[in-house]
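Bug report (template v2)

What were you trying to do?
Predict the complex of my protein with iron/sulfur cluster.

What happened?
Run completed; filing so the output is reviewed.

Input:
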Amino acid sequence: MGKVLFIRQQTYSQPEIDSAVLRAFNHFGGITHFVSKGDRVLLKVNLVSGHDITRRVTTDPTIVRAVARLVLEAGGTPFIADSPGIDSFKSAAEKAGFMAVARELGIECAELTDPVDLPASDGADFKRIQVSRHVIEADKVISLAKLKTHGQMYLTMGVKNLFGTIPGRLKAGWHYNVGLNREKFAGLLLDIYAGVKPNFTLLDGVIGMHGDGPTSGDPYEFGIIGACVDALTMDFHLCGMLGGKLEDYPLYMAAKKRDMPQCELDPSDIDGDIPATHVFPGVKLPKTRSMRLLPSIPFLDRLMTSKPVHIPERCIGCGRCAAVCAAKALRHENRRLYFDYGKCIRCYCCHEMCPVKAIEFRESRLVRLVNMLR
Ligand code: SF4
Ligand code: SF4
């Protein structure tokens, strides 16, 4: 049996999603293989911030509903949880349709709060990471991730979804601590993944996002649901299937540095309807890649990564971008943004939190030149 199952799924029709989700669990031994009677099961959705379902930023509620029902049938107590970067949890979860699922099934929809230490895994780069106590106290964690491109990290799928287990604004603090080095940030993601150890991951790629993800890109109908116990293998295969290069994917490069076995990709890792050799046509990847021709050198990193720029005619003056900037590299005044690019750590949180796509990326001249020569 392969390590990852890819199911072809073109719509969010609830009966179809129900059977796809059932098939996903059955492939790996059935829901009772993962959930025992009385287990409290955290369903870690991808919420990000308050976005309407049609923007395809968040895990679709049909998938959350299908998994929650299965957990209930197995005698577990599911609860839907995440921690938005900036918005009020309730309104963000309402917009994403998670509150409606919770009300309908009589289950909890909880904000990931109350940071506690995550036990460090062997070989972790970061020995003290704090995640929500809900994560530590849950008997099982099922990650319900979304398939999207990501300005800072190239792609966000199974592994990156768990960054949301860090409560609220602490996430911005991590961006600031890690700074410009994406592989270092990817190392943090590996440490969180190894510490949280989700029991199962389902990836919603029925309609995901390409372009300037994870919030300002365009919907893309991938027509796929991924299922696995090992999300690293799934994410690495999908990188190529989306037309990406593994050497541009910081998560892969960080795993390679650690000699992780998942870096050896084998087409037989994949079962189901869509083979590892499939390439989704015309996927737009973020323009924020840094050059791989040079090693990471702190003073060059800024020149090698795209910078955020303001599109004033779209701006509604909400100030969320400046509020989320942990580096204090951004000032907002009268619908004008003033960037201090010397301080900016290119985390793109401002871009991620802008509700109206009024922040875009611009490659530096140096990157444009080198990419032309590649
Ligand atoms: S300006 Fe934007 S990209 Fe730069 S550090 Fe602040 S939030 Fe991050
Ligand atoms: S750029 Fe976006 S987040 Fe910043 S003030 Fe304008 S609309 Fe708000």
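What did the reviewer find?
The domain at 298-373 is CATH 3.30.70.20 (Alpha-Beta Plaits). The mean pLDDT is 93.
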